[in-house]
Amino acid sequence: MRFVLLPAAVAALALACSPSNRATSNAGGRETGMRDGAPVSSDSAGAPARSIDTAHAPGAGAGSEGAPTAMLSQLEVANTAEITDAELALKRSKNQPVREFAQKLLRDHRQSREEGRALAKKLNVDLSQVAGGATESQSASAGELAGKKGADFDRTFIDQQVQAHQQNIDKIRNQMLPQAQNADLKAYLQKTVNTMEGHLASAKVLQNDLKAAS
């Protein structure tokens, strides 16, 4: 799951992660890196997997009423990005634990995207403007991943997941959840951050295993 939070309007995420003991049963939502209210670009192998540009998100410039639109819009983008990366990992990686992690990511983010769309419909939020969209930083991250092969791909993929998950967990807990007013939206964010924490734990195990094997 990636996000960014603007004053009075929250935006962004990466999501849908279910806790588990190991990489084989965890897969994280693709999350975009966030830092100090601004997108974090991916300019190195260890860069965040996703950065969401809230300045161009529907509702990003609105008042408190715009927060659900901004958050759900960015979740739509983040989930779609994570699905794309997980699919790429399943095509490129030959490492079984990495593949299992990617498979879990794929299932979780598909489910999270459907839940986000259902919530958007309930709250009368129009996601049509962002469906299938991607920010420049997301495209750069995906491009970096696409250029990797073998063990290099595995390390880059997992490094991105660890960094992005940690940043997004911090933003959701410290900024997004405190500002969310709608009960259903708050519950969605809480579920997201809980599953992200499970994904992060599994991704860190994988990260250590891959370093030890290199």
Low-confidence stretches: 2-49, 51-66
Biggest sheet, in brief?
2 strands, antiparallel
The total count of strands amounts to: 4
Provide the gyration radius in Å. 16 Å
Shape: globular
Descriptive account of the structure:
There is one protein chain. This protein has a two-stranded antiparallel sheet with strand order 1-2. A two-stranded antiparallel ribbon has the order 3-4. It contains five helices and four strands, in the order ββββααααα. The protein is mainly alpha-helical and 214 residues long. Residues 2-49 and 51-66 have low confidence and may be disordered. Helix 1 packs antiparallel against helix 2 (96-122), helix 1 runs antiparallel to helix 4 (150-179) and helix 2 (96-122) runs antiparallel to helix 5. It is globular, with a radius of gyration of 16 Å.
List the helices and strands and how they pair.
Layout: E1 3-6, E2 9-12, E3 34-35, E4 38-39, H1 67-92, H2 96-122, H3 136-146, H4 150-179, H5 183-213
Helix pairs in contact: 1-2, 1-4, 2-5, 4-5
Quick structural gist:
The chain has 214 residues and is mostly helical. The chain has helices spanning 67-92, 96-122, 136-146, 150-179, 183-213; strands spanning 3-6, 9-12, 34-35, 38-39. The strands form two sheets. Strands 1-2 form a two-stranded antiparallel ribbon. Strands 3-4 form a two-stranded antiparallel ribbon.
